[in-house]
Amino acid sequence: QVQLVESGGGLVQAGGSLRLSCAASGLTFSTYRMGWFRQAPGKEREFVAAITWSEITRYAESVKGRFTISRDNAKNTVYLQMNSLKPEDTAVYYCAADRVGSFYEYDSWGQGTQVTVSS
């Protein structure tokens, strides 16, 4: 079955950067669309970014220009480079994978990694 393992979260000051990684297994990675979502305390999970197998990307308005999603098919890994972090970016970040559907629909999820941005 598909397994997704996120890493790279942590505590960072506002204005700082982090790079999240998501290692995937149990799938033909190069054929999957990959996404990042986040969930802040007391809020619903929200879309952050996605990248298709052909490396078309899409971002939430709140992260455009600050976050970059990329993938390395040789390593079965998707990344989320987060720059100019703000306290409102604090959340658990989840990696997701799917083969069909829209940028916002996924059927495989990781366990999440915590990102905390201090002011």
Which helices and strands, and how do they pair?
Blueprint: E1 3-7, E2 10-13, E3 18-25, E4 33-39, E5 46-51, E6 57-59, E7 67-72, E8 77-82, E9 91-98, E10 108-109, E11 113-118
Parallel strand pairs: 2-11
Antiparallel strand pairs: 1-3, 3-8, 4-5, 4-9, 5-6, 7-8, 9-10, 9-11
Can you tell me about this structure?
- This protein is mainly β and 119 residues long.
- The chain is built from no helices and eleven strands.
- It has strands at 3-7, 10-13, 18-25, 33-39, 46-51, 57-59, 67-72, 77-82, 91-98, 108-109, 113-118.
Beta-strand portion reads over 45%
What is the β-strand count? 11
Secondary-structure element string: EEEEEEEEEEE
What is the alpha-carbon Rg in Å?
Answer: 13 Å
**Uncertain residue segments:** none
Coarse morphology: globular
State the separation between the terminal residues, measured CA to CA.
Answer: 40 Å
Please outline the major beta sheet. 7 strands, mixed
Number of alpha- plus pi-helical segments: 0
Overall mean pLDDT score?
A: 97
Task: Kindly state the percentage of residues in helix.
Answer: under 10%
Find the structural class using helix and strand composition: mainly beta
Features:
mainly beta; 51% strand; 7-stranded mixed β-sheet; single chain; globular; 119 residues
